[in-house]
Known about the structure:
By secondary structure, this protein is mainly alpha-helical. Helices cover 63% and strands 0% of the residues.
Amino acid sequence: MSGLAESEPRQTGAGRGRPRSEAVERSIIEAVIKLLEDGVPLAELSIERIARTAGVGKATIYRRWNGKEELFVDVVRTAEPPDAELPGTSMRDDLVALLEQLRQRGLMTRSSALLHSVFAQMKSSPKVWDAYHTSVIAPRRRRQVAILRRGQANGELRTDIDVELVNDLFTGPMLFRTIMQPNAALPEGLSEQIVDTVLEGLRPVSS
């Protein structure tokens, strides 16, 4: 079985029905991964087929996920590195931790042909991509912006700049290297280099 299934199943938005069973959820997630490894396209991954592969009823899946899109997003989240633990010592240190997570995710995607295929299929499926954006990307962005606002309040970041734009300045270089330039180097220390370079021009200037 691929390393995609090694992580603990993650919580989804479906809190309905009988209590959740970790073993059942794992079997369902592993069934999706098996089908993907067998070359079944996302478009052909019906709930019925997933249930048959996992050896459960369709109702068992629907008690845990609202549909295929939500289930598929959970599979991807299981494959990705967990959200970064923030040191909380400074805005700079928290930003480095967040970028390091992006770097690790980029390295993981490059090393896994299956994960690379999964992301490619997600982007070609508007419903799945919207579900991923809503449950994964948007909360991460809100977390990043909150760190920048805290930095402004603490005097670590200029207050006359748009934190949404600043967030893009920090994450943009890493995303460009991991997505637009798949052969670009992602060396250790890159996260610190990006954060410190951007901060050089964004720290408050003493009067």
